[in-house]
């Protein structure tokens, strides 16, 4: 029997290359080795302000982009979190095992509370417990994520252990899996690439938009003039090359940057071309799917149906162990 893998993505805008390199590419590479379930986590996305009118569009976009990137729906389940009510039901149970102090220490909560000063709601605080419920509901063992989610998965392990100790062995302790790009920096070169910082390139960016964004991306800030030698070791554009360019290109750019044979514009042009080569097929396939939302909805509905079955069984085991039934 294959181990169960679970991961999720918020429908909070366009899927960006941070999500792609940090998580989605890894999901795709693990499809055959695990029994995989992926969720579009809309209940997580409502913990910050959003427009209800665009939520469905965002869900379809997130699903379509993931499928277009290679999440082959014949080899995994993909579904929308709010279509399986047991996620919130298990969250309530796990809340009773989670000390407030641990949640107060969560880095993402502290960051998001700072960014959303006027809307520090209980959902934002409880976000990691809902994430734990997502994983435990399916007895997930492997959880491929970017580095920013590792603290949440550690918490999931603690909560699983606590449940097992108090009520009886039921949940495996989920282990995180990192990709070779666990933390992609944004085009500002300073912050993690994220939707909220608006420092990203999306997977469905048009070629000219990719170039426009890259042309403004921060490079080695010590390189003031074209003739100054650059230092690829501290250049985020060079780091991005590592994920889109060949080894020989990397080698050449590294040498030619250090000797000022090429400037940042030349270097960015090569990156832009290579990015377009990889992302254009994803963009085309995504648009095809987005223009046929019914087929995407069908896939998501079928996924939710399978998940509801598993979720029901787990909840019945939970209630039974807890003396609730
Ligand atoms: P979300 O939607 O913010 O991001 C989805 C995945 O992309 C990764 N990621 C990155 N990786 C590298 N560099 C970056 N700049 C970058 N930005 C995002 C994230 O680490 C994540 O793996 N809480 C989760 C969603 C979630 C979940 C779950 C994940 C809900 N329930 C259960 C795993 C298991 C989140 O906000 O992801």
TrEMBL record:
EC number of this enzyme: 6.1.1.2
Pfam (any one): tRNA-synt_1b
Class of enzymatic activity (EC top level): ligase
Gene Ontology CC annotations of this record: cytosol
Any GO MF annotation of the entry: tryptophan-tRNA ligase activity
Cell compartment(s), UniProt: Cytoplasm
Catalytic activity: tRNA(Trp) + L-tryptophan + ATP = L-tryptophyl-tRNA(Trp) + AMP + diphosphate + H(+)
Binding, ATP: 10-12, 18-19, 146-148, 184, 192-196
This protein's record includes keyword ATP-binding: yes
InterPro entries linked to this entry: aa-tRNA-synth_I_CS (IPR001412), aa-tRNA-synth_Ic (IPR002305), Rossmann-like_a/b/a_fold (IPR014729), Trp-tRNA-ligase (IPR002306), Trp-tRNA-ligase_bac-type (IPR024109), Trp-tRNA_synthetase (IPR050203)
Residue ranges crossing the lipid bilayer per the database entry: none
Gene3D superfamilies reported in the protein's UniProt record: HUPs (3.40.50.620), Tyrosyl-Transfer RNA Synthetase (1.10.240.10)
UniProt key word Transport: no
Residues that hold L-tryptophan according to the record: 134
Entry keyword set: Aminoacyl-tRNA synthetase, ATP-binding, Cytoplasm, Ligase, Nucleotide-binding, Protein biosynthesis
Chain span(s) of sequence motif 'HIGH' region: 11-19
Residue ranges of the motif 'KMSKS' region: 192-196
Gene Ontology biological process terms from the UniProt entry: tryptophanyl-tRNA aminoacylation
Subunit structure comment from the entry: Homodimer.
Record PANTHER family: TRYPTOPHAN--TRNA LIGASE, MITOCHONDRIAL
Family named by the database record: Belongs to the class-I aminoacyl-tRNA synthetase family.
HAMAP family xrefs: Trp_tRNA_synth_B
Function: Catalyzes the attachment of tryptophan to tRNA(Trp).
Name of the protein described by the UniProt record: Tryptophan--tRNA ligase
């Amino acid at each position: 029997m294959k181990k169960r893998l679970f991961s999720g993505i918020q429908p909070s805008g366009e899927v960006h290359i941070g999500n792609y390199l940090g998580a989605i590419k890894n999901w795709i590479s693990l499809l055959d080795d695990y029994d995989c379930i992926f969720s579009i986590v809309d209940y997580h996305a409502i913990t910050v302000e959003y427009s209800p009118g665009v939520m469905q569009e965002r869900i379809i976009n997130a699903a379509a982009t993931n499928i277009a990137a290679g999440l082959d729906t014949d080899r995994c389940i993909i579904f929308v979190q709010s279509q399986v009510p047991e996620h919130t039901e298990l969250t309530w149970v796990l809340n009773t095992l989670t000390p407030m102090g641990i949640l107060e220490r969560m880095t993402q909560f502290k960051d998001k509370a700072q960014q959303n000063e006027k809307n520090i709601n209980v959902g934002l605080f409880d976000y990691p417990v809902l994430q734990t419920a997502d994983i435990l509901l399916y007895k997930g063992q492997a959880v491929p994520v970017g580095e920013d989610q590792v603290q949440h998965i550690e918490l999931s392990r603690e909560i699983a252990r606590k449940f097992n100790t108090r009520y009886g062995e039921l949940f495996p302790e989920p282990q995180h899996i990192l990709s070779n790009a666990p933390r992609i920096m944004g085009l500002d070169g300073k912050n993690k690439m994220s939707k909220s910082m608006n420092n990203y390139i999306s997977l469905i960016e048009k070629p000219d938009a990719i170039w426009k964004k890259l042309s403004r991306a921060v490079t080695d800030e010590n390189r003031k003039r074209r003739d100054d030698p650059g230092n690829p070791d501290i250049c985020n554009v060079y780091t991005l090359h590592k994920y889109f360019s060949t080894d020989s290109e990397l080698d050449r750019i590294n040498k030619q940057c250090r000797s000022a044979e090429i400037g940042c514009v030349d270097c960015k042009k090569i990156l832009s071309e290579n990015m377009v080569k990889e992302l254009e097929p994803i963009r085309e396939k995504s648009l095809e799917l987005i223009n046929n939302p019914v087929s995407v909805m069908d896939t998501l509905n079928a996924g939710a149906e399978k998940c509801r079955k598993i979720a029901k069984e787990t909840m019945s085991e939970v209630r039974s162990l807890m003396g609730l039934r």
